[in-house]
Amino acid sequence: MMAEPFLSLNGIAKSYPGVVALDGISLAVSGGEVIGLVGENGAGKSTLMKVLGGVIQPSAGTIILDGQELQRLDVASAIEAGISFVHQELNLFENLDVTANILIGREPLCGGLLHLVDRRKSRALVEPLLSLIGADFKPETLVSSMSIAQRQMLEIAKALSQRARLVIMDEPTSSLTLAETDRLMEVIAGLKRDGVAVIFISHRLSELAQCADRVVVLRDGRMVGELQKQEISHASMIKLMIGRELKSLYTPPAQPFGDIVFEIDKVETTAYPGRPVSLSVRRGEILGLAGLIGSGRTEIARTACCIDPLIGGSVRVNGQPLRLETPSDAIDQGIFLVPEDRKRFGLLLDLSIAENIALPSLVDYAAYGLVKVTEIFALAERQRARLDIKASSIATEVGTLSGGNQQKVVLGKWLSRDPRVLICDEPTRGIDVGAKQEIYAMLRRLADSGVAIIMISSDMEEVIGISDRIAVMHEGQISGLLDRDEFSEHNVLLLAVGGTLH
Amino acid sequence: MSKKDIGLLILILVVGTVVAIINPLFLSPINLANTANLVGLFGIFAIGQAFVIITGGIELSVGSVIALIGVLFVDLMVNFEMAWPLALVLMIVLGVVIGLAHGLLITRLHLQPFIVTLCGLLIYRGAARFYTEDATAGFGFGLSFPTLEWLTTNRFFGVPHSFIAMTVIAACMWVVLHRSVFGRHLFAVGKNEEAARYSGIATGKVIVSAYVICGVLTAISAIFFAMYTRSISPSSHGNFYELYAIAAAVLGGCSLRGGEGSIIGVVLGAVLLQVLQNLVNLLGIPSSLNFAVTGSVILIGVLADTQFSSYRERKLATKGATPRQPQAP
Asked: Does the beta-carbon distance from B192 to A370 stay under 8 Å?
């Protein structure tokens, strides 16, 4: 039986100049329940969570905490009330160890006025927490040596150390492998058993179906629906989120594939030396590259585009081996990479859309080394129209755009240079459903115009729904190739964990 | 001109007016020409420093390079009787070599710019002192190089040639920084080196080029300094000049994190620094307070700038909100 709600929000609203971020949200949270929170980017999920964390003050509505009616929470009272966050972008000190991260700001002291850290007591505090969540790291492990999944576990341990009653997880699985996700699901089940409430924000609908007691759907700052456990299904959630039925993802190619354009022949990467990888893509084909995180997919992409050095094998375009020494060698051949982390590698966030789009093509839009500004603006306008980048103008700073529009800017950079081979590494990570559809359609249009596309994706729905063929990687090697009639979650998973199909 | 540049110009005009009111000598042609000469000398290497700062680096060896190149230049002409154009070219080549060495150490061997150029600061100063055995290098009595002297220290209708040289260099560098492909690449590398690399920009070459530009401009200004002072004592010539360059660049809107800056700003920064030096002299402030005055004004200027821009942001935010306010009950 569910306990009485200890926290409830009534009619919470928040408006910013020109935008209503939240509009009359009511939500009750009881101990031991797992609430899924879904919605497109910009639906108000993060704002709602910031209200709970006391970072943002609502403009209307009340918060009832343990029977006390409050107008707002501040950060200190949110922590006091046991509300903690596991952030999407983790807030850990990489240079410190696990113990220091958990106890930061609350270190047990000894030595009187000297204020030394009591190491023994620290360890005694941390060890039980780690065993509670079944952590596979030690109190003295350095965070910089931990995987993303382990860091997330650490964030959860940190939340528990603050006697959390409500743990809010913002897209915790977006960079986890499947096995790691399963572990996280177990930890969530454990929290639930101990009477801790969990709010779980995710774009991955299947995980919600697995762990949530109910799913709350936000759209445009409003609560548009709530699904009880038995009602949770992909179709019902997506319908509420975007207000329409999601069509089947796959669009078949307009014409049969052409010849092989791009070949990776026995390529060895610095991450997996001695494990050669061979792949080939035909004109007009979208090759999905599936596998667990860390299986070497990104490294192959980076090596093929000469971001990382090629330590063995060769890369061929139309049968001709390429001399790859710097990234510009690949770019000159029309081989482009849409990187995994667009904020770090894809964009200059403080610069305008126009400057970002023009960056790789500046030399082509210059005379005597001087940039032709009007031509660059024209180029950027063309790409904005082509990709439907939503911004007030091409002079808008890229950092202010939503994830989907940022990704379109990255695509626009390369589309303005006539790609021959486009390698997209997680092209829709952190992007809302609507923009995902647009990017899928854009990839198909590109393929139909004769571009060979390699799409690295950890999203099963995406990789099965978009690809014409799937190559699956396992620990640095290709463990199998699947044609469309062999596509299934089961087959991809089996190959990803190193199994064989036949 | 950006808002920042205009703000700096206003600051210069305000300080200038105040000084002129207190001491009208400030506006005398001779004083203006002297100040312009110093602006020219300091402005040339400050522009070089700005290129390095825009990459997110720093060049600390400027003062020592000015001393080293100064003593070598004088020595080549006086003791080796080398023709001055050849000596000039050699010194510029030396500037290129120093810039190249710093740039390659930073990009190829991944050393931090601060450390590389700090070592440069120590090494070149030591080399200059060792080379002259700590003695002052200068042009002997009666020695003269009419063309070179005309080029570097003469005046054109009262405007010192050093100032004209700085203006020409600033104009060229303005085109390079604000209109050329290289300039765009430089800003991109300074903002996000990784993203620039993924876009096919040869980031290493861009960074090395910035250090080479700095080396060349420093060498040019070193020659102007040598001709201006005519005698160089290697232990003190050019001391702290790197800090003037950094101050001018930062006053002029360069961010030490890289990716920001403008040539006009740097030139105005150099002007402000020299006006401040002049102010100390003209207002009879003890010259021992020189650095303290300069430091205080820079601090106030930077403080005012950040306060003003955050005020502007707040104002913009409330302005955006006004149309919605009537809806509130």
From this structure: no
